[in-house]
Task: structure prediction
Amino acid sequence: ISKPTSAASCFQCHQDDLTGRRVIHKPVEKGCDQCHIPHGGANRMLLKGGSGKTACYVCHQTPVDAGKVKHAAVERYGCTGCHDPHGTANRFLIARKTNDLCITCHEAQKDGRHVTPMIGRGHVVGGNLNDPRKPDRPFSCASCHNPHGSDNPNFFYFGGSAMESCDGCHGDKTG
Result:
């Protein structure tokens, strides 16, 4: 007789939140008790490490939201506003594909184009393009904008303006 895992014990009462997920959060693979106190606790969701982002920063010790320009979604909803702490079908435990996730709040950008002075109809974001700085990832909103926050305006990874942000991949086009 094999000893049941903590997840199996939890799933006797709680819905199985793992089966069928392509990407499983590493601590969850070890068991629910890695993050949750099984017999009660002071924190919401019986989290061991505290509430909200504090619980995530027990393991993820480098705060990703330390930039001067704060993303309101991260400030309001914490990590779980975009990431599922158990598992998802998407890389980085995000609830939807990157652009689909971003447009849940930024609906005006759903056409995938940003208008720039250099390209009148806009720069396509998405499609079959790869991120120029991270070729193992698709070109997405997060190729130019840091969804966690930034020291630059508009959450740009590079530059203090839209044109300077373009220089991050295309180089300085001032001549």
Q: What stands out?
A: Strands lie at 23-24, 69-70, 87-88, 113-114, 123-124, 149-150. The mean pLDDT is 86. The chain is about 20% helix and 5% strand. Residues 164 and 171 are 9 Å apart (CA to CA).
